[in-house]
Write a structure and sequence with these properties.
It is a single chain. By secondary structure, this protein is mainly α. Helices cover about 50% and strands about 5% of the residues. The protein is built from 14 helices and 3 strands. Strands 1-2-3 form a 3-stranded antiparallel β-sheet, with no helix packed on it. α2 (about 25-50) packs across α5, α7 runs antiparallel to α9 (about 210-220) and α7 (about 155-170) packs across α11.
Length: about 325
């Protein structure tokens, strides 16, 4: 995790340490917050010193002082949002993501360190983000994808089938699946221990399809692995990479005639959640626990209904059979 600590002011390094040690954020999250917050600090210095936009990346973070940060107001933050939108071409979603890091930094400097008397982000409003329905596959398309991979009766084929089975049945994140170890799988209790976002562990139960796929794949592993703890291995007998799993999914989608639709490993997660909600009638609270969401609001994107279900809902109205009685 390269955070260039020797090039950062002390207050910024303290903040990054807080995210890592106290908040327990993953390395990826800390790195993303570092990049987003450091961009703001560089922009702030450039704005204060009248530097052009194309020189922002060259600003030394060590030159950003607490005194400069104390000058930030809501108006300054709106200027920064305008810079992100107009100069960098960021979408409202990207702006919201970048400002999350800025909000987090100011909250830390105000509440945890006491370096600021008031938090300028307290009354900050952000551009509204359009909420789009998640892309997902239908039940028939999911079955077709599995059938396509099932035809590959080789160790790699069994591995690929197992990977896609877990994605479609349990809705794992890519990082969760890649990080699974054999010891995480409990065949007796039919469950697997998962390390999710923010290094938070959760237990996900496994159905018959998942247990059978894992068992068949493990039985096919004959060569001694270099990483014996890893559940999924590459051809080099090392823990499989995220990119390789993405390629496996992309190839399977192409073979099933589902390519070119913007589907991905994360869309398989959407598909699993949608199938559980639409066909198994799983409630959103249970879905939240299965998927490892912090907020129920995140899970509620899966409560969208198919056009067929909406039609069935209207047709099931007890007044659907009523007709106007003709006058005599």
């Amino acid at each position: 995790m390269d955070l260039h600590r020797e090039e950062n002011p002390m207050f910024f390094n303290d903040y990054l340490t807080y995210l890592d040690v106290i908040r327990g954020r993953s390395q990826r999250t800390v790195t993303e917050y570092y990049h987003d917050a450091s961009l703001f600090l560089r922009w702030l210095y450039a704005r204060q010193n009248g530097l052009p936009a194309d020189e922002i990346e060259n600003v030394r973070l060590l030159d950003v002082t607490v005194e400069l940060v104390k000058t930030v107001t809501v108006s300054v933050l709106y200027d920064y949002i305008r810079y992100l939108r107009d100069t960098r071409g960021n979408t409202p979603r990207s702006v919201s993501r970048r400002m999350s890091a800025v909000r987090s930094l100011f909250r830390y400097l105000t509440k945890n360190q006491g370096l600021l008397q008031t938090d300028p982000c307290q009354n900050l409003e952000l551009p509204s983000v359009k909420k789009a329905l998640p892309k997902f596959m239908t039940l028939n398309e999911s079955q077709r994808m599995l059938e396509t991979v099932e035809e590959q009766d080789t160790p790699d084929g069994l591995r690929d089938y197992c990977i896609i089975t877990l994605f479609l049945n349990c809705g794992f994140r890519l990082s969760e699946l890649v990080g699974m170890n054999i010891g995480d799988v409990d065949f007796f209790n039919r469950q697997v221990r998962v390390l999710g976002k923010g290094n938070k562990e959760r237990i996900v139960y496994l159905n018959d399809a998942c247990l059978a796929a894992i068992s068949e794949y493990l039985e096919s592993r004959t060569n001694p692995p270099e990483e014996p703890r890893a559940l999924f291995l590459s051809r080099m007998n090392r823990r499989i990479s995220k990119r390789r799993v993405q390629q496996i999914v992309e190839n399977a989608l192409q073979a099933a005639g589902l390519g070119g639709r913007g589907l991905s490993t994360h869309k398989l997660r959407h598909t699993a959640a949608t199938l559980m909600y639409q066909h198994a009638h799983v409630d959103t609270l249970t879905l939240r626990d299965i998927l490892g969401h912090q907020s129920i609001a995140t899970t509620e994107i899966y409560t969208h209904l198919s056009s067929e279900q909406r039609q069935d809902a209207i047709d099931s109205n007890p007044l659907a059979g009523e007709r106007r009685k003709s006058k005599k």
